[in-house]
Structure prediction request, 557 residues.
Amino acid sequence: MGIGKKYSEIGAIRKDPGGKLNVLLVFPNSYFVGMSNLGFHTIYAALNSLDFVRCERAFIPERSQRGETAAPVSADSGELPSRFDVIAFSMSFENDYPNLVRFLSMSGIETSAGARSFGEPLVVAGGCAVSANPEPLAQFVDAFVIGDGEFAILELAEVLFSAKYEKAERSELLDRVSAIDGVYVPNLFTIEYGPDGTVATIKAKGDRNGVERRATARESLKPARTVIFTEDTEFGHVGLVEAVRGCPRACRFCMASYCNRPARFMTPQDILYAAKEIKPYRKAVGLLGSAVADHPNLPEILENLLGMGMGITVSSLRADRIDAAVLDLLRRGGQQTITIAPESGDENLRAAISKECSDDVLIEVAAQVASAGFRSLKLYFMVGLPGETMDEVEKIVSLVKRMKHGLKERSLGKRDVLINVSVASFVPKAQTPLQWEAMLDPSELARRIKAVKVGLGSTRGVSVHADVPKWAFMQAALSRGDRRSARLVSALAETDFDWHAARKMVDINPEFYAQRERRWGEILPWSHISSGVCDNELRRDAERYRSRLKGATNATG
Ligand code: SF4
Prediction:
């Protein structure tokens, strides 16, 4: 029996395996996390829309109370992963990379792609993190889908289905899938390293140059939506609908924006149609996307959802797009919390990352949130941005206090509005203008986080949560890693995420990946993967970041 039976869910598709390409779609984390991932739902629905494909789901098995972890099985049928033709991983986060290796090894599947034999499943991976830089997983994965997956995966399935019945050799199979737009087969590329440890050459077999990110045209795009409904997931109470893919704001650290260009807004008609399909199962819709507040038809969409009798929640909003009318619609839709991401407490640093928004606007938003009757305001900040000093960190504290004050004034006579501050560490990401920058040492990040916590510790109605810098550091080491980083991924898998033990097991230096500033012109491990934004453009944006910071220093110094 599959673990899906353990949970109550609606919408799972059951198919007979006979005569089909059997795909096991794996989310490399728990059922609770995976079932709120819209990319996972989309690929599941896309594959099962093909008559000749049976797609089932799997997750990382939970540990029993005795500390044991059972071998993974399909959540739908309970079948072993090794019995599937394809294992397809949905990889959104670098910190899940070791789970890909754990899943394969717990399933008795050869972890090294080059050593996998005829008859073993083909291992495929896609998702935001690997689309930016697939190299740390290159040793384990036969083929990556770079960019939008919903159409590429259909073409891939077609090729694999024919190859299955022709009994094509593995090398022949990989050659065929590499011809699909957006599909990257690492085995067809050889990487050589120079004496200083940086990439010296990237050579491709045949006449390949590299791989272009797959980007679905706006007109062909339909909003992703929840297709399997379960209460046992983070957003189980709502049906999720994708309102926008990508973000036009292009904040200079943001992989979600740079790896998803151009931003594509779903039409109000398509969003409302998806909501209609959700309505029999859920009373509320969660509008997802990096730039929901930028949707040109947001008020119209919200009004229509209310008209359908649906509740509404939205993910993070842009402060400069919030107005009383939108807040009123969200409040009527039952939303309790407004989330915004100022990222920095300093106006100039915000402008440098391209999040131009004055303190006054943020304070006014807090006041409006209070006037509209919301219960809480969630604020995302980041510490460790290049060029940041303790002055800017302290400005997070003073900004939050001023926002709290603005909020208090307007909530007079009403319940106090809580502010939840979330502090993350800056992680330089591949394919963004800040990809050349160094990450701060975890101890320094911890010092800055502590300054925010202490600074706000005695402010009533404000709570602070922060990421653990150690895990941000691991994310940084993997997000800009190369093929040699596979050793770290394997060690983390083997030690069950024991960072200190894993570091001792390998002869690579994570600091080399996380904390080294890259030279202009250096061949980066992901130089053969094109996100659609050329290096010159990224460099121009990086220079704008630096000159904005310099301008501020000169002005104040
Ligand atoms: S507004 Fe948010 S999603 Fe958009 S680019 Fe900036 S950080 Fe990324």
